[in-house]
Amino acid sequence: MNDIDIRDRLEAYRRRHHQSQDELAELLAVDMGTVSRWERHKEFPRGKNLRAVLTLLNAEHPDEEVLKQLFGEASLPHRDVIIAFSQALVTNGSLDEAIRAAKLAEGLQERRERAAQAPEVGPARQSVT
Length: 129
Known about the structure:
Blueprint: H1 3-16, H2 21-28, H3 32-39, H4 47-60, H5 64-71, H6 79-92, H7 95-117
Helix pairs in contact: 2-3, 4-5, 4-6, 6-7
């Protein structure tokens, strides 16, 4: 994905969701001028802003390559965590709510994995004395 693609996709996302630059800026925790400069190709999102933009754009159409860029190959979250994050972000439009949903899904996934690894315990035997 090149610089122009990301900025053009961001503007298309904003228009598709009928958001002003100010509303999108609030969602991404930046100021409106920053969103304006991105859309006019005067600046490119960097660091945590780039991660937030990629996360937002990826929420609608998850792409494994983008997820690898966001989370790294080794720490790619479980699919259920990604889905929970994406759905919360698109539904609520709040990055904080999306992060909370992802953490809940991650905790549930960890419990499932621990339960699957636990040895099966059969019925307790009663001793005869």
